Structures are given as C-alpha cells and as structure tokens.
Amino acid sequence: MNSMSKGYYNDDYRRNDDCDCHRKDDYDHHRKDDCQCVSCRKEREKKCRLCPTIVKCGCPSATTIPAATIAGAAFTVSSLTLNTSCLCDPAIKLEFASNLVAPVAFTGTINFQVFKLCRGQTTPIPVGPAWTFNSVAVLGSETFSFFVCDSDSCFDDCCTYTVVATVTSAVTVGTLSINNATLGAVATCGSNSCNC
Q: How far apart are alpha carbons 42 and 52 in whole angstroms?
C-alpha cells in the first residue's frame, strides 16, 4: 500500500511534541502543516482565538459656554460607559468630535480633556493630555476633534469616560456652543497571549 491508497495513515501520528494523537481517526492525513492532529488543531485554535473588539459611541450632546465665563469653570460635554471585562489587557482608543458654534464673536481659551472613573474610584483620573481650543473673535462654526489612547485599565473593569471642557482664559467674550459632542471608543486586547 502506498501513500495514495485509500485509508492510508502515516504511522507517525504523534509527530508534534505538543500534539498527542491517540487514535488514527484523530489524525487528519489530508493536512500537510503542523496541525495534522484534529484534536490538537482544535485546542490550538481555542488557545489562539482572536480577541474581541468593542466599538461603542456615546450619544451626541450640546453644551453652551455663556459669555463672561471665568477661568476654571468646567463643563462635561460628552460621556460613555465601557465594559472591558471580556478583554485581556485592554487597549482603548477614545475619539472625540464636536462642532463649535459662535452666534456672535467668541474669544477665549478652552481645554478639552478625557477623564475616567472606574469601579471603586471616587475621583476621576485624566486620560492623555489636554487639547486646547484657542479662539480670537471666532464667528460661525468649526469642527474640533482629537483622540487619546488608554492602555492603563484593569481586567474585568467597567469605566465611565467623560470629556470635560475647562475655561483657561481669564474671561470669555461671547457665547460658544459645543454641538454634536460625541465620544466614541474602540477597545481590544493589548495582547492575545491570555485566554479570556
């Protein structure tokens, strides 16, 4: 009987050190790669399965910064809650986008920053740097967007991310509407070496 004969099985059906095929019917003689053992291949696929990816968007919101707002005044402009309990070593990309509208000339400086509050925390902590919108007599509308990454989350964590706009100029002139402010997140595993 040669290798082309029907029902031919290689006698070496324990060819891989980490693959122990005990029965000839567990050996896939049609495979030419390192996963010829059916049960071993299934086990490898289970261990090396792809990590899930989470895509989540917050609801658009609108906030108005009134005229003559002094430095230090803070406004929450967008938020979302993200559960990463199904991810190993989560890596999260947060994207913020908005439409800044000034019906009359607006002058002022505003810092936008992402904060997160997770289970067991009492104080939100900043994520990434602050992004600055500096305006000298803006009239009309313009888009303002940025993204930050958060890879400092724990396993089985559920966190609420918020974008806070803080006035940093001495005082604002005119009103500024932050329309369609939306925070979105894309989260996945930072490594695929663990079994979730």
A: 19
122, 73 in Cβ contact below 8 A?
no
Instruction: Summarize pLDDT for 39-86 with one digit per residue, the tens.
Output: 665 655 555 567 889 999 999 999 999 999 999 999 999 999 999 888
- Residue that has been written with the tokens 């990434």 in this structure: 128
Give, in order, the Cα–Cα distances in Å from 44 to each of 22, 34, 168: 17, 11, 55
| DSSP H or E stretch at residue 42 | helix 38-47
pTM: 0.71
Residue type present at position 101: V
Whether residue 176 contacts residue 102, with contact meaning beta carbons closer than 8 Å, is answered with yes
* Residue whose C-alpha is closest to residue 184's, from 44, 2, 60: 60
| C-alpha to C-alpha distance for 75 and 77, rounded to whole angstroms | 6
Residue with token string 């009987």: 1
pLDDT-derived band at 167, boundaries 50, 70, 90: very high
